[in-house]
Design a protein that fits this description.
The chain is an alpha+beta fold and 141 residues long. It has two domains: 4-86, ATP Synthase, domain 1 (Sandwich), CATH 2.60.15; 89-140, Single alpha-helices involved in coiled-coils or other helix-helix interfaces (Up-down Bundle), CATH 1.20.5. It has two helices and ten strands; from the N terminus they run ββββββββββαα. It has helices spanning 91-106, 111-140; strands spanning 4-10, 13-20, 22-27, 30-34, 41-45, 48-53, 60-64, 67-72, 75-80, 83-85. The strands form two sheets. Strands 2-1-9-8-5 form a five-stranded mixed sheet, with no helix packed on it. The longest helix has 30 residues, at 111-140. The protein is globular, with a radius of gyration of 16 Å.
């Protein structure tokens, strides 16, 4: 079966680089499944999970907090704001960030603080969801 090269990088460095039969990425308007020979695409990404699939191998799960997705027929490049493998997500830190954001929203601060808290909350929720999905998939295999 043919593959597509997938590269996921963030400011911290390269998170993943390798071939895949399919990559599923959280584009701004919904998840995008990318297989070899996909039509070129450039789009923003929302916070969520990138899943990299190869037959006969364990699926790779990576949390991204947003960024840019570029697709070429034989290449997928994710330029993530931040990225971390699902297995490396710090659940306690994500829960703490979620609680902090909820408290800021409850205190009804300035519009700027509310916007920042909403963004932080969305990222924390997405991070926890990626971890939850990763654990579910891992327990079923």
């Amino acid at each position: 079966m043919s593959t597509i090269q997938v590269d996921i990088v963030s400011a911290e460095g390269e998170i993943f680089s390798g071939p895949a039969e399919m990559a599923v990425c959280p584009a701004i308007q919904g998840d995008v499944g990318v297989a070899p020979q996909h039509t070129p695409l450039l789009t923003q990404m929302r916070a969520g999970e990138v899943r990299i699939q190869n037959q006969g191998q364990e699926e790779v799960h990576i949390f991204v907090s947003g960024g840019v997705l570029e697709v070429q027929p034989n290449q997928v490049t994710v330029l993530a704001d931040t990225a971390v493998r699902a297995s490396d997500i710090d659940e306690a830190a994500a829960k703490e960030a979620k609680q902090r954001a909820e408290e800021t929203l409850a205190n009804k601060q300035s519009d700027v603080e509310v916007s920042a808290a909403q963004a932080e909350l969305a990222i924390a929720i997405a991070r926890l969801k990626v971890l939850e999905n990763y654990r579910k998939r891992k327990n079923t295999h």
